[in-house]
Amino acid sequence: MSNFFNTKIEFLKGVGPMRAELLQKELNIYTYGDLIQHYPFRYLDRTQFYKVAELDESMPYVQVRGRIRGKEVLGEGRKQRLSATLVDENGDQLELVWFKGVKWMQKTLKNHTDYIVFGKPTEFNGRFNMAHPELEELAEEKQTTAFLQPVYHTTEKLKAHRIESKVISKMMEHLLKVALPQVQESLSPELIDTYKLMDKRSAYANIHFPETADKYNKAKFRLKFEELFYIQLRLFRQKVVRKADLKGQIFKNTATLTDFYKNHMTFDLTNAQKRVVKEIYGDLTAGKQMNRLLQGDVGSGKTIVAFITMLIAADNGAQSVLMAPTEILADQHYVGLKAFADSLGINLGKLTGSTKAKDRRVLHEQLRSGDMKMIVGTHALLEDVVQFQNLGLCIVDEQHRFGVEQRSKLWRKNPRIIPHVLVMTATPIPRTLAMTLYGDLDVSVIDELPAGRKEIVTTHRFDSHRLRVFQFVRDQINLGRQVYIVYPLIEESEQMENYKDLMDGYESVKRAFPEFKVSMVHGKMKAQDKDYEMQRFVKNETQIMVATTVIEVGVNVPNASVMIIESAERFGLSQLHQLRGRVGRGAEQSYCILMTGYKLSKDSKTRLETMVRTNNGFEIADIDLKLRGPGDLMGTQQSGVLDLLIADLSKDAPILQEARAAAQRVLNQDPQLEQPENMNIRRHIQSLSVNTVNWSRIS
Question: InterPro entries, from UniProt (predicted)?
Fold first, then answer.
């Protein structure tokens, strides 16, 4: 798009340097392009007028036509207020009240004059009133005024400087007058025709100031489609470039893997695991760098797939890394895989923050010489001192917990040929989010639990049922099982005094179960103390583990069959699902009990009902996305992809599907975007700076 949209915002009529500085700090609005893409988040319906007799307290903002018949200032000093009476055409009265700006309103408001008033109706002493309504004097020629009024996001600081939604709306009016003639079409005529899209100029005009509800809907669809189309186009092109440019080591030998299958593996892979291994092997033999996302619910068997992949690398003279976000999880992977590695005569190491200096020196030497073929660890693997003879495979577990820069630091540890990459997550990602976040990755899904696993029985119980729940716990422990009790907080805080805190919970659990031993783990403990308590629980020296969400990732205790989550309404849906996945790891029937008080929000009820109804992680992830939006799901802020301006992944899956299909079709037919019909698309991409992640942005 033209340089016009890079014009600094301070040069717009009604802005100036002081307002520009505030808009930059508070809303990241620096240029005309940023402002025109600061879309309204809702609209006030100014298309309908109500009579006073039709008002109801449940109504949001409404507008009423009437005549001012009297006004007076009531009260003294700080309690002073202005009261005016508006009478509609039926003679019914509405009181208008102002507590601020009393003197100014008293001067401005004209008696015996017709006005449109707009505000929230409330009832007091059997009479309706509106506090601080918007007023518009009703001139004869404006009798039929009707429109959808945009409401823009603002902040407390902006409001304090009188930059409210109406002021932003005024700025937008000034901008559109000068900006619309400069808007260039950014989609091809073929796409506009195929998807019946509104032209871009009209879309900008009608998203900010809709002429009709139909035009607003068309503008919204057009801008959402374009935003998602350019994101998908960028991801597809990245994938094409990567597959064309990035060579990968070819891993064809599988002798050790065959030995492992025949002589050392004590269980059968599920069909889903076999399918995923086949997909990975296809990548490893293709001569291109593998870049694959492996999704699988808690306990679905991702770790053994990771180990099989590491074996293929070892068979071909390459080293592999398995990086986990916490020491607990790294330890668990190490312990789980060490027995297999030892039986095959493979040197498997572990490097975490608490690895002693003398052990580190040995590890570093073995990695440089190539004697160590596999290593499991945490962020410690990223240190510059960690060097490899031939790093051929990087596996990242719970990958969303690592930043992009951290992950790429690992890939750079082989300067000759980029390692194959397998990223794993037990947080099921909704399809729409996966397409947007990971559209440039190949995706494999393990959608089947290992044989013999029983579905976890989940129930919701109120605090008043605690004695019955405790008796159930006692019965389970007497059968030889172990129990987790998870709390949302470590210590009681004033803001969250209603929620059970860990210390208080620990004491009451010890009082309730004097006959059993209790462990406690939380994030503020030192690593060695945490490990000590964890190991006591793993060895069944303690029967109850009181913990915070530090146990959400990792910790495999097959004997633990009961998970009690206190103040369950405090947790997000995917977090509840992750916690539940800590049990159900053995052959016994497992249980998850969600404890809450009676006071629950609508969203909390939805989360609890979902948990009780289903164990399907993908269904849970879809509902979680609808409830929370994508922002804080999967740590997407760091991804750089989800800087969406108007599209909403929780609601716009159908538009995303269409935009994705369109992007793929365009690139299949014209990979370099050289054909004349794609000139608009090519020009739009070229006009964007290299660093811009979201290609739908103006600048």
Answer: ATP-dep_DNA_helicase_RecG, DEAD/DEAH_box_helicase_dom, Helicase_ATP-bd, Helicase_C-like, NA-bd_OB-fold, P-loop_NTPase, RecG/Mfd, RecG_dom3_C
Amino acid at 308: I
Q: From 3.20.20.70, 3.40.50.300, 3.40.640.10, 3.30.70.3040, which CATH number describes the 290-446 domain?
A: 3.40.50.300
Q: Distance (Å, rounded) from C-alpha 300 to C-alpha 322?
A: 18
Question: Considering the domain 1-43+147-180 in this protein, what is its CATH number?
Answer: 1.10.150
Say if residue 637's pLDDT is above 50: no
Identify the pLDDT of residue 369. Answer: 93
Q: What span, in angstroms and rounded, lies between the C-alpha atoms of 28 and 23?
A: 6
Residue range 531-582, pLDDT digits in tens:
788 888 888 999 999 988 776 555 678 888 999 999 899 888 878 888 888 8
For residue 675, the tally of other CB atoms under 10 A from its CB is: 14
Contact 88, 52 (CB under 8 A): yes
Are 65 and 51 a contacting pair, CB within 8 Å?
Answer: no
Q: What is the pTM of this model?
A: 0.64
C-alpha separations of 553 from 201, 255, 538, 618 in Å: 49, 33, 15, 18
Q: Do domains 1-43+147-180 and 290-446 have the same CATH topology?
A: no
Quick check: 251 pLDDT over 90? yes
- Residue 263 has, within 13 A of its CA and on its CB side, a CA count of 9
Summarize pLDDT for 152-210 with one digit per residue, the tens: 988 888 888 888 888 999 999 999 999 999 999 999 999 999 999 999 999 999 999 99
Spatial separation of the C-alpha atoms in residues 458 and 438, rounded to whole Å: 31
